[in-house]
């Protein structure tokens, strides 16, 4: 898919990213159920050291044995939510997203074909839930909010849905998808 890369800093023009920074490759699966048009998301375990309790896509760091970003996203989705790669029809990738935690995340857009009963990996995922694709691809549903971070206000996208506060990298990646679909 075409478009420009995004980052957690998009709404913070006063931040100068250091030249030569090293980013760790990672990928996430934007998994959409073909029959319902709903996006599968997770709530991260409160026991995790990084981003506990936050809403996220299944995904993670690309391992050396992963052939590419797509393979990493599929492996992570199988590990985290029990999604069998044979049920996934990969549509493509979005441009990469740089996080404040120094990851270069490749979003992989895919359809889930057939029945799928999520099985959360209890060490990483406390809940698997779904949101309508049309909710997270409508720019009108996105808000810009801020928090105090490293001595200054840091602005970021949110796209709340029911009891779920979707923000940060997950919301920014969804906003990139929304921009492409409008």
* Number of helices in the DSSP assignment: 3
Class of secondary structure makeup:
alpha+beta
Strand content bin: 35-45%
Helix content: 10-25%
Query: Element order, helices and strands?
Result: EEEEEHEEEEHEEH
How would a textbook summarize the main sheet?
6 strands, mixed
Average pLDDT for all residues: 91
Distance between the termini: 14 Å
Rounded radius of gyration (Å): 16 Å
Return residue spans where pLDDT drops below 50 for at least 5 consecutive residues: none
How are the elements arranged and paired?
Elements: E1 6-7, E2 24-33, E3 38-44, E4 55-56, E5 58-61, H1 69-81, E6 88-93, E7 97-98, E8 103-112, E9 125-132, H2 133-136, E10 143-149, E11 152-158, H3 168-181
Describe this entry's structure for a reader.
By secondary structure, this protein is of the alpha+beta class. It is 17% helix and 36% strand. The chain contains three helices and eleven strands. Strands 1, 2, 5, 6, 7 and 8 form a six-stranded mixed β-sheet that branches. A three-stranded antiparallel β-sheet has the order 4-3-9.
Which features does this protein show?
3 helices, 11 strands, alpha+beta, 6-stranded mixed sheet, 182 residues, 3-stranded antiparallel sheet, 17% helix, single chain, 36% strand
